Amino acid sequence: MKIFKLPDLGEGLQEAEVVEWHVSVGDEIAADQPLVSVETAKAIVDIPSPFAGRVQKLYCEAGKVVHVGAPLVGFEGAAEEEDAGTVVGEVQVGREVRAEAPAPVAHAGGAIRATPAVRALARQLKVELEMVTPSGPDGVITTADVQRVAKILAEVGPAEPLRGVRRAMAQNMALAQSEVAAATVIDDADIHAWAADADVTVRLLRALVAGCRAEPALNAWYESHTMARRLVSRIDVGIALDLPEGLFVPVMRDVANRDPADLRAGLDRMRADVQARRIPAEELRGNTITLSNFGMIGGKYASPIVLPPTVAILGAGRVHEQLRPVDGKPAVRRVLPLSLSFDHRVVTGGEAARFLRAVIDDLQRGD
Predict the structure, then answer these.
(1) 174, 248, 271, 351 - which has most CB atoms within 10 Å?
(2) Beta bridge partner(s), residue 107
(3) Domain locations along the chain
(4) Which of 187, 185, 203, 175 has its CA nearest to residue 306?
(5) CATH for 165-363?
(6) What is the 3-state secondary structure of 50-106?
(7) pLDDT digits (tens, 9 = 90+) for 237-270
(8) CB burial class (10 A; 0-12, 13-18, 19+) of residue 156?
(9) What is the pTM of this model?
């Protein structure tokens, strides 16, 4: 049997979820005929057959997550040598621990103390010790602690594994949290001079261009393994889009050289493509800076997450009215809150502040 394995999908993607099979066991198919649709962190992708033949076996059903190099389809024909370099689901068993002293368990918030018996009970009841609040002396997790959490989990129901976009979001946020030295500065832009029908996102894109021209250090990529910075001349803005499936960040290319009408048309097309889950993979990579207009949903200020290799993200909060001094007298003005997060490994506080000042100056223009 000839075995076709999940190919390298590019972009560093190591897994995909099977969405729909387009063939069945026994089908006679042609080369390049669609075999299966898979969902990655980027989009839904159709994988074609590498050759013609009769399908003898499908190795997984829809809804399963498959790693790159894992078998997908078996075709009738001469047997091929298995790829010994691909190991899926391998489990390594360590030495048995016999001591009953409370042992620390690795945890993001510090060591977790629990005896082997309590840890064994947690495994039996499928309770993650990171979820348990200890009640024993010196912060030791007790049997009662584990049983209490197990009861709560039983009432809540089974956990649902994160798939597709949400799985990628969890991985990316964990990477950002562990790697980026994040800092955030906030300020407000007085947009009272704007027309009532002003396009907020397009104006924000124009202001981002002004910020990048004032401080190019924020339109950059940082290579942490070599401690090298790349200043990028073209401004390609990742636009954070919130959808039920999770967070998408499609990229608006070369925003500095596009007029407002072209930017709006591009934003509309980009959202439609993302919602249809048919956006090309190349439109979800390579941004040099990121914009999150979360104020369209709610909230004034935030600490947006910087995703490597970029070094900055600008967040725009909810436009609201605020009492502010104007020419020495109080006046009600329309205000746009701004939150700029940056990677302090690469960007200085002064650079971030000057960038934000340039953004605000541009936003406060009435044109």
Answers:
(1) 248
(2) none
(3) 2-75, 103-156, 165-363
(4) 175
(5) 3.30.559.10
(6) CCCEEEEEECCCCCCEEECCCEEEEECCCCCCCCCCCCCCCCCCCCCCCCCCCEEEC
(7) 999 999 888 889 999 999 999 999 999 999 999 9
(8) exposed
(9) 0.67
CATH fold group of domain 103-156: Dihydrolipoamide Transferase (4.10.320)
**DSSP of 215-274:** -GGGSEEEETTTTEEEE-SS--EEE-EEETTEEE--EE--GGG--HHHHHHHHHHHHHHH
For residue range 102-140, list pLDDT tens digits in order: 444 444 445 788 888 888 899 999 898 988 988 888 888
Distance (Å) of CA 89 to CA 19, 70, 125, 210, 273: 21, 10, 21, 49, 34
Dihedral sign (CA 32, 36, 40, 43): positive
Q: What is the pLDDT of residues 88-109, one digit of tens each?
A: 232 232 333 333 444 444 444 4
Q: In the CATH scheme, what architecture does the domain 2-75 have?
A: Beta Barrel (2.40)
